[in-house]
Amino acid sequence: MFPYSGVMPELATLLDRLIETTPPADDPSGRTTFDALDTLRLIRNAVDHQIVLHATRLDELGVAQMAGSTTKKLLIEMGYAPAAVHRIMRIVDALPALPTLARHAGDGRLSTEIVDAIVRGMRHIETRCPEGLSDNDKSSHEIELAGQALSGATPAQVLQHARTIGNILADATDTGIPAADDSTLNAVNAHTTDDGRVDIRADLTQTVGEKFLTMIDERSCPRPEPDGADDRRTAEQRRADALELILDQAALGASIDSIGSPRTQLLLTIPATGSDPASLPWTGSVTQAAAKEVSCDGSLTEIILDGESVPLQMGQTRRLFPAHLRKAVIIRDSCCIKCGAPPSHTQVHHIAHWADGGTTDLDNGCLLCQRCHTQVHHHGWDIVMGFDRHPWLVPPATIDPQRRPLPAYNRRTMRLDDAA
Question: Which of 384, 259, 267 is nearest to 328 (CA)?
C-alpha cells in the first residue's frame, strides 16, 4: 500500500495498481501492448490535468504563502521538475479564462504540453493585438487552436498557427507594435558559471532570431572526421562550434570591410493569394512591416507559393544594396540619418520599399541603425528624398502634428566650416 498518510484512498489505490501493472508477457501481435500504451497516455493526460486543478486549489488556499513561500517554489520542493512547474503555473493562471480548453483537458484528450502550447498561443495572440481582443474573438481563437490540437497538431505547430493568427491581427491595425517585432524588448545576458564557462541567453525579435538561426544552421552541418567516420559531435556541439565561427568571421569582416560586408541571407515565402502572411523558414509568419524591413538590406530570396504550398515563382537571390552602393550611401549620409549611429551599426533602408517595387539605387536608400529602422517601419516615421538628393525625416503626428520634415542627422549638425 501507499506509505504516506493523509492521501485520498482512491489515489492511493490507483497508484498501487499502476505500480503493480506490467507489460503483457504473451502478446505476439503487440496489439495489447499498443492499447495499453494508448490508455496510459490518456491516464497521464488526466493526471496532469488533476495536478493543475490541485495546484490551483493549493494556490487558492494560500498554503505556500502562509509559510512565506510561493506555490511554484513549493511544487519544486515537492519534487516536480522546475520546467514542469513553470508549465503547470502558466496553465493554472490561464485556464479559468479558457473554458473550451479546460473542458478538453479534463477528459484526458490533450496532453499538458498541448494545453501549455494553447495557453502560450493565446497569450501570443493577445500581445499581437494592441487594441485588445473581444470576448467573442478570444473564444473563437481558443476554439481554433483547440481544433488544431485535437486534429493531431504538435505543440510547435499549435504555436506556429497562433503566430500566424497574431500576424494577421497585427497587420490589421495601425496602432502599437507586435511583440515579435519590438526591438525594445531585445535582451542578451551572459554570465560566468561556477566552472568558468559562460552561459548566454537571448530574447530577440523575430527578424534578429531568424538571422541567428539561419547563420547557425549554415555553419553547423555534420562533416566527416579525418578518418572518414561520421561527425562525432552532437547537434549542440556543432551549433556551439558554428557560433565561434560566426564570431571569428564577424571580427575578420569588421577588420577588412565593415561598411561593405553583406548582411545575412534570408528566405522569404509569400503566399500567392495574399490571404496569409509571408513567412521565414525558422521563425514562421511575419507581419507586413517586418517583411518590408528584412527586404531593405542583405541577401534575400523571394518564393511565391500557391494554395498547395507549391512554388509558383522563385526569385533570384540578390544582394539588395551591393558594397559599392552601400559605400556611396555612407559617403552621403555619414551615419544613421535619425540618431547619428556610426555606419558600421546601420543598414541601408529602401525609402520606397523594395517589396513594393522600390529601386535599389542611391536616391532610394538611406542609413538607419536597427532601432531607428524599426521605428520607421512600425512607429509612423516616414522618409522622403529632397530636391537636394538628401533624405529627410517626417515625424509621426503624435510627435509633430504638422509633420514638418527634418534634415538627416549629419546635416542637422553640419557646421559652417563643413559647408565651406
Answer: 259
Q: Looking at the 3D structure of the chain, how many domains does it have?
A: 2
| Separation CA 329–CA 336 (nearest Å) | 11
Alpha-carbon distance of 368 to 408, in angstroms, equals 10
At 114, list the grid cell. Answer: 498541448
pTM: 0.55
Reading the block at residue 310, the C-alpha cell is 507549391
Q: What is the pLDDT of residue 7?
A: 64
User: How is the beta sheet containing 391-394 ordered, strand by strand?
Assistant: 382-385, 391-394, 406-407
Instruction: Convert the pLDDT of each residue in 187-230 to its tens digit.
Output: 888 887 777 788 888 888 888 888 888 888 888 888 776 666 78
Q: Are 145 and 278 contained in the same domain?
A: no
Nearest to 114 by CA among 87, 154, 81, 55: 154
Q: Residue 18 has what DSSP assignment?
A: H
CB atoms within 10 A of CB 301: 14
DSSP run (H or E) holding 407: strand 406-407
Structural domain contains residue 99: yes
Which residues form the domain of 401?
Answer: 265-419
Nearest to 155 by CA among 101, 124, 106, 115: 115
State how far the Cα of 148 lies from the Cα of 106, in Å rounded to an integer.
Answer: 17
CA 288, 177, 155: angle at the middle one, nearest 5? 75
Question: What's the rounded Cα separation, in Å, for the pair 260 and 331?
Answer: 12
Closest by CA to 45, choosing from 92, 93, 105, 97, is 105
